[in-house]
Amino acid sequence: xxxxxxxxxxxxxxxxxxxxxxxxAEPGAMVYVSGSTSVNGTAVARSSVVFPGDVVQTRSSSQxxxxxxxxxxxxxxxxxxxxxxxxxxxxxxxxxxxxxxxxMTTSAGIITVTPASSAWTEFEMSHRNGAVQIIAxxxxxxxxxxxxxxxxxxGQSATRDDSTTTRNDSDQGKKRKKEGPAxxxxxxxxxxxxxxxLAAGAIGGGLIYVLTRSGAPPSPFVP
Length: 223
Description:
The protein is an alpha+beta fold and 223 residues long. The protein contains four helices and 16 strands. A hairpin with a 2-residue loop joins β2 (37-39) and β3. The chain is globular, with a radius of gyration of 37 Å.
């Protein structure tokens, strides 16, 4: 806890001393929190500096805001977000991203979202149970994933799977595997010509036996 407090103090001092041009070159950012929020598992009271690889996690009824040069990321409650060198990665939860940096990336699984232009762009992105939802609130965004890259226009929304295999394809594959191949069609046994011939021969033999034995006594002993 003391190390985190000292870290925050040093960062605030550096921010106050460094000119704006050097601040823009710094890889870190500041996170401001409300409610129960942690950075790499350590609780944050009000604010903290974050560096690439740090994970910001919010609890119920909590919120955090990452402020970096040319970008702002609002992290909603019950979310876990990793700060990256040039963006953020949503491990679980929801965020709103505002940026004028066209090369800033927001990722979730294999899905990556970037602004379509260098104009100020705002979009909402959530990652829950393998599904990724994107809503373009201001400006257009590009979405890259297993199906290639598409442009989502302002005011539109889209949902993508966070893996290379969609859930529908996976379910269909399991269904085909469970059902197995269909059995080969075969003609009924009674319709076979061989079976019919055998049956006719058996019936004829039975009749001959009955007719030839009809006059014989039931026992070899004659009273």
